[in-house]
Amino acid sequence: MFCPNCGEGNIDKRANYCPICGKKLFFDQIKRKKLTIISIIMPVISLTIVITALITVYHIESNVNKKVLNYQNLAERAALSGEYEEALRLIKKGLSYRENYETLKNEEKLVEAVIELNEDLSSVEKNIMNEQFVDAKKKITTLKKQVDKNESPLFVKLTYEIEKAESSVKIGELKEEITELSTIDELAKKLSTLYSLELQEASELKQQIYTKMIMISSAEAESSLEKKHFSQALFEVDTALQYVVNNDKLLSLKDRIISEKLSFEEAEQERISKAIIAAEEEQQHNLTKAVGLVDVQLKVDKFGDAYIDGSVINNGTEGVHSIIVEFDVKNNEGKLIEAGKTNVFPNKLDPGESGNFEHVTYSTKKDAKIEIKKISWLLEEKKG
């Protein structure tokens, strides 16, 4: 039995007064039992409430932690895939649940740094497009110093992109050098230097040199052909064919030179003139409307060079050969960039057959358009 006044618990149950405080004891046996039960139950109930509250809080906090970790994992995947803006969005979402989560805050700083460096890299790419290679190299040097300070996997893709940009600068500088070259011998020497370069785009530069060799050879051969210097024209074509082996355009031009040489020697022009007079309307159609333009396309690449591709068709009733397409390349303001001409291959087109032509105009710098000025050809001589 215990005293309700002072709490003394070691009192004889027959006592009427508390031996400690002297207060009268009013509890009978039943009340004493109830008090004993209550004194046991209350702490149990309190403990149960506390435990329940702790478990609830634990589950709530666990769910929040799961959400934060999930956003962190998604953000890391997005960042490693190069989706930096999405990664930053996910990180900020995670921080909205745990704003003091240091790991996520550090990742936020890293992603923001990568985004900023990518913007700088975009500026480098614009410099390359505008052939501002000196400025591009300075920016690349700065970028490499900033990236080298960080070992995070997030910078791996950026490092690769910077290396690509650095290669593009080297390629761009070589392209500028190639543009200045005007002979096949000069181009051949430059071609030999490319084999020592370990650049992914080296094959593109080789193709650039091959294309210019074809253009120079074709232009020189055309000039000789106009003067009826057939042997010189063949020599110029064969010189280029040493490097651009089995090129369809050059082989077609060579075929055309041989054909015109034979025609010249056999006075083909005189026979064609007689045939035109005799054929009347049909011949007139073959002379003036036989070859028609099917289509022509012009595309400007990232270095500002305009690539021209087109095709023609023989709508006449006789075979034609030595087809020449004359054209103007102009900019958007209508200013003439180049007045050129090119031959159609194959050299001979029978009725209903189509042929192709191509050309490259260098350093257009911006969008360009092509205007076909004239298509000329020769008729095949009728036999019998």
Describe the structure.
- The protein has a domain at 290-384: Immunoglobulin-like.
- The strands form two sheets. Strands 3, 4, 5 and 7 form a four-stranded antiparallel β-sheet that branches. Strands 1-2-6 form a three-stranded antiparallel β-sheet.
- It has ten helices and seven strands.
- It is an alpha+beta fold and 384 residues long.
- It is rod-shaped and about 155 Å long.
- InterPro entries: FxLYD_dom.
- The chain crosses the membrane at residues 35-60.
* Gyration radius from CA atoms, angstroms: 44 Å
Work out the helicity level. Answer: 55-70%
Gap from first CA to last CA: 145 Å
Secondary-structure class: alpha+beta
Number of helices: 10
Order of helices and strands: HHHHHHHHHHEEEEEEE
Protein name: Zinc-ribbon domain-containing protein
Keywords: Membrane, Transmembrane, Transmembrane helix
Organism: Bacillus weihaiensis
Topology (SSEs and partners):
Elements lengths: L28 H52 L3 H12 L6 H28 L3 H16 L5 H27 L3 H11 L7 H25 L3 H12 L6 H18 L2 H21 L2 E10 L5 E9 L5 E12 L4 E8 L4 E2 L4 E8 L6 E12 L5
Antiparallel strand pairs: 1-2, 2-6, 3-4, 3-5, 3-7
Summarize the structure.
This protein is an alpha+beta fold and 384 residues long.
Name the descriptors.
rod-shaped, 16% strand, Immunoglobulin-like, 384 residues, three-stranded antiparallel beta sheet, four-stranded antiparallel beta sheet, alpha+beta
